[in-house]
């Protein structure tokens, strides 16, 4: 593995939570501490999960063998329904049976659709709190990004989702983003955001440079008259499309001023 070596050819180590860990050099040149014990534990866990998935797949294949030779599942299901009606001595037209089923389904939907809608609303609130709150509290945005938080969220918010109550990030290809330091584990919000920004084609326009000269850099902490955010027309024109749309929306609400 490409570990970092000192002038004497010895592996360079880094102190992480009281442990001396070797420094690993990634293909892009970035250096991170390599926790071998954590990596081995993760590999063991993933092997166990793979075994579980394989056993479930084998069980599913065994169950499907019972249906070999059935070319038209829909026709087979319809035939079984007709036979069931005859077995139950319900000599009624199959169409009438379908009507009864449809009415029953309609009744259930009427009862549970409000519950489903409420659940979706609560899910949206959870997303807004976890994802929106994470953007608002981000140390990376506060220290490294030149454009306002809402513009950063407008650009990268779609890359984050809440799964089982946890924040998960995906890249432009929809693949989950994993930590560079905790190998095999998902990246937390701050690390995932930094990775997304680092691979963003227009990152030079949104990151702070020397003297905060990025495309969204603002004087006086970005505050205009009356406490409103203030950006110049030149800064607006230099922003990526997603950030421009967010800035325009803020301007329409009167919370941001675009000056000439």
Low-pLDDT segments: 210-225
Distance between the termini: 54 Å
Radius of gyration: 28 Å
Backbone shape:
flat
Strand content: 5-15%
For the report, how would you describe the main beta sheet?
A: 3 strands, antiparallel
Q: How would you write the strand order of the largest sheet?
A: 1-2-3
Number of helix segments? 9
Number of domains: 3
Along the chain, the helix and strand elements come as EEEHHHHHEEHHEHHE
Average pLDDT score: 77
Number of strands: 7
User: Structural class, from secondary structure content?
Assistant: mainly alpha
Q: What is the helical fraction, as a range of percent?
A: 40-55%
Q: How are the secondary structure elements laid out?
A:
Layout: E1 13-16, E2 19-25, E3 31-33, H1 36-64, H2 73-87, H3 94-137, H4 139-144, H5 149-156, E4 160-163, E5 166-169, H6 189-198, H7 203-206, E6 229-232, H8 233-238, H9 241-253, E7 256-259
Parallel strand pairs: 6-7
Antiparallel strand pairs: 1-2, 2-3, 4-5
Helix pairs in contact: 5-9
Biased composition (Gly residues): 211-227
Protein name: DUF6651 domain-containing protein
Region (Disordered): 207-260
Can you walk through the features of this model?
It contains nine helices and seven strands, in the order E-E-E-H-H-H-H-H-E-E-H-H-E-H-H-E. Strands 1-2-3 form a three-stranded antiparallel beta sheet, with no helix packed on it. The protein has a two-stranded antiparallel sheet with strand order 4-5. It has a two-stranded parallel sheet with strand order 6-7. The protein is mainly α. About 6% of the residues have low confidence. The chain has three domains: 31 residues; 58 residues, no CATH class; 122 residues, no CATH class.
């Amino acid at each position: 593995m490409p570990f970092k070596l000192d002038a004497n050819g010895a592996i360079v180590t880094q102190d992480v939570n009281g442990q001396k860990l070797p420094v690993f050099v990634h293909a892009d040149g970035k250096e991170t501490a390599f926790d071998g014990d954590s990596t081995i534990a993760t590999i063991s866990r993933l092997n166990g999960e793979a075994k579980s998935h394989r056993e479930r797949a084998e069980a599913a294949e065994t169950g499907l063998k019972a249906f070999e030779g059935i070319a038209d599942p829909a026709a087979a299901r319809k035939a079984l329904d007709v036979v069931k009606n005859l077995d139950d001595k319900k000599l009624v037209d199959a169409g009438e049976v379908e009507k009864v089923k449809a009415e029953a389904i309609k009744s259930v939907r009427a009862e549970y659709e409000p519950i489903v809608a409420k659940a979706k609303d609560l899910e949206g609130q959870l997303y807004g709190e976890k994802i929106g709150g994470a953007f608002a509290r981000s140390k990376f945005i506060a220290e490294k990004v030149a454009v306002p938080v809402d513009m950063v969220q407008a650009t990268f918010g779609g890359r984050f989702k809440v799964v089982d109550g946890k924040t998960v990030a995906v890249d432009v290809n929809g693949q989950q983003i994993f930590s560079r330091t905790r190998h095999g584990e998902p990246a937390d919000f701050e690390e995932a955001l930094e990775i997304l920004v680092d691979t963003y084609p227009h990152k030079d326009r949104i990151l702070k440079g020397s003297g905060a000269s990025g495309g969204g850099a603002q004087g006086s902490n970005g505050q205009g008259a009356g406490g409103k955010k203030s950006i110049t027309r030149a800064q607006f024109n230099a922003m990526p499309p997603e950030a421009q749309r967010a800035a325009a929306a803020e301007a329409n609400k009167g919370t941001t001023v675009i000056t000439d």
